[in-house]
Structures are given as structure tokens and as C-alpha cells.
Amino acid sequence: MSTSMNFSTKSFRPRPPDKGAFPLDHLGECKAFKEVFMKCLRDNSFDNSKCRLQSKDYLECRMDHQLMAREPLDKLGFKELMDRPPSQAEKESKP
Q1: Using CA atoms, how far apart are residues 92 and 36, in angstroms rounded to an integer?
Q2: Which of 50-54, 57-61, 67-71 shows the lowest mean pLDDT across its residues?
Q3: I want to staple 62 with a disulfide (CB 3.0 to 4.6 A). Which of 9, 68, 77, 83 is the partner?
Q4: How much is the pLDDT for 15?
Q5: Is Disulfide bond one of the keywords UniProt gives this record (predicted)?
Q6: What is the pTM of this model?
């Protein structure tokens, strides 16, 4: 029984993953949102449940600038934050 591997018959074409990786923000288009989110995490001992609004804003910025695929916010776990009028504290947290 002879096995022969011929690698030239098929070409492997890599493609980016569907989820879990996205381009870096080289132009800093969402840097202000990232900084607000990171400050919130630091101020809250990295308890991300206290920074949901900042996380949502950051991801919306990334989607708006094609730095990640557009996804419905409820699918990203932000259903409770959708269609909610911003409070004064939330307005102040925006960059």
C-alpha cells in the first residue's frame, strides 16, 4: 500500500475567523471609547458587569468603523441596554 501526498493539487487559502478576532484600531478611531471603558474597569476592580454601557459604546464604535462585523446588540448581550434613554451619568461617561 503506497500513500503519496501531493500538496500541490490543493491550495490552502486561510480566512479570518468569524468571531473572536478583529482588526486593530491602528488609526485610533475608537480610542476615546476604549479609554473610557478601561477607566471604568479600573475604577470598578475589573468587574465588567459595572461597565456594560461603556462596553456597548466601544463595540458600537468598532462596528461603525468596520473594525468588527456588524452584529445586533441583543445578540452581543446588550438587550437590556437597547432603546433606553440615557441617564445623566451615562451622558457624562461618553467621550
Answers
A1: 11
A2: 67-71
A3: 68
A4: 64
A5: yes
A6: 0.64
Cα 27 to Cα 21: distance, rounded to the nearest angstrom = 18
Q: Which three three-digit cell numbers place residue 85?
A: 434613554
What are 3's three cell numbers? 500513500
Q: At a CB cut-off of 8 Å and minimum separation 6, what does 15 contact?
A: none
Contact by Cβ (8 Å): 31, 67: no
The torsion of the CA quartet 43, 68, 82, 42, rounded to 10 degrees, works out to: 0
Would you kindly state where each structural domain of the chain is located, as residue ranges?
31-93
Report how far residue 67's alpha carbon sits from residue 55's, in angstroms, rounded to the nearest whole number.
15
Q: Return left, alpha or beta for 44; rule: phi > 0 is left, psi -120 to 50 is alpha, else beta.
A: alpha
Q: Tell me which amino acid residue 20 is.
A: G
CA distance 33 to 57: 7
Distance CA 81, CA 31 (A): 22
